[in-house]
Amino acid sequence: MVGNWFFHVWKKQRFKALIIGTLCYLLVIDTTLVMQTLAPQRMGLLALVAIFAPYLFMPLTMLIPFLFWRFTSVLRVVFAAGIVLLCLWFPPRLGKGSAQESATGQKITALTWNYRGRNKRDGYLRQIIDEKTPDIIALQEADWSGIDLATDILQAYPYHLYKPKDVPPGEAVLSKYPIVDHGIVQAADGSRAVWDIPRVLWVRLDLGHGRTMLVVNAHPISAVNTVYSCTYCPQRRDNQVKELHQFLQPLLARGERLLLLGDMNLTDRELAYHDLSADLEDTQLQVGSGNGQSWGINYFNRVWTFFRIDYMFVSPNIIPLNLDTDCVSRGSQHCILIGQFAV
């Protein structure tokens, strides 16, 4: 009896229930986003909401089958309101395209990729090098022994740092320009309060005609599952980002040409992104193609990637010309970034 009454009421009121439920859901999302905007948090629930915020609108897709029914005009309006709200909070950002036609000066192409060591025998790196012919290559999670076997690549890039004694674990820089100086960013006293392991490699390249450029290959620690019994704990990562920022500031102050690239393990919706990008130009926002999202599930990345966590930043005295995010499946969850610059 009670069951029959429930289904009778549901049959008559189901669209009202969907409308009210959807409105309440949108109100919760909007309120949460307003709270995070007015009082941004580095950790906790609101910080996670900021990271996943665009995906919180995905449940709206469950309404689509009902939109084609009769007498659902109000539900359609509510659905449209949700789409408008999504676009207001997260307007489409597809990059500004190439600026090559207006640029002058020496052109330099750089590639960065979280390579994942298991790719060492698959030939992916050689393929992308042959296709894009970058002048500078920065890798994270690389396998040094695999690079050691690639004698043709080492001949094409005669200036290189990739062996464990010279670089932070898994990092590599290969260059067609001479490396005149290099170093690792770490605590002066060797403590591990901030840097659990060395994670930043810098090299100074001789561009010719008395000009140099500093290339910084960075791979801060992930905020996910890197602290015991804590799924999302960004404190150590954020501290590493701040230390990296402090390292860069005097270089920028004295007018160094600077290219910062790598897997930063943070999204552009987190506070740490603003710490990292201060006084630098985000190449994706200047000339990037597509949305720039660079991390997801390997085999689906060509269709959709989840987050933007790989970056190329430049100092104001370098002109970004173009940035492509190549998400062809190559054995890594990360896409490849190929940027072109005028110096």
Structural class: alpha+beta
- Supply the CATH architecture of the largest domain: 4-Layer Sandwich
Broad CATH class of the largest domain = Alpha Beta
Could you say what the CATH topology of the largest domain is called?
Answer: Deoxyribonuclease I, Chain A
How many structural units, i.e. domains?
2
- Report Rg: 24 Å
* String of helices and strands: HHHEHEHHEEEEEEEHEHEHEEE
- Provide the β-strand percentage band: 15-25%
Strand order, biggest sheet?
Answer: 3-4-2-1-14-13
Give the overall pLDDT as a whole number: 89
Low-confidence sequence ranges = none
Characterize the overall form: elongated
Organism: Dictyobacter formicarum
Protein name: Endonuclease/exonuclease/phosphatase domain-containing protein
Transmembrane segments: 15-33, 45-68, 74-91
Keywords: Membrane, Transmembrane, Transmembrane helix
Outline the secondary-structure elements.
Layout: H1 2-38, H2 45-52, H3 73-89, E1 107-114, H4 124-132, E2 136-140, H5 144-149, H6 151-156, E3 159-161, E4 172-175, E5 179-184, E6 200-208, E7 211-218, E8 224-227, E9 230-232, H7 235-253, E10 258-263, H8 271-277, E11 281-282, H9 283-287, E12 310-314, E13 319-326, E14 336-342
Parallel strand pairs: 1-2, 7-10
Antiparallel strand pairs: 1-14, 2-4, 3-4, 5-6, 6-7, 8-9, 10-12, 11-12, 13-14
InterPro entries: Endo/exonu/phosph_ase_sf (IPR036691), Endo/exonuclease/phosphatase (IPR005135), GPI-anchor_lipid_remodeler (IPR051916)
Pfam family, one: Exo_endo_phos
Organism: Dictyobacter formicarum
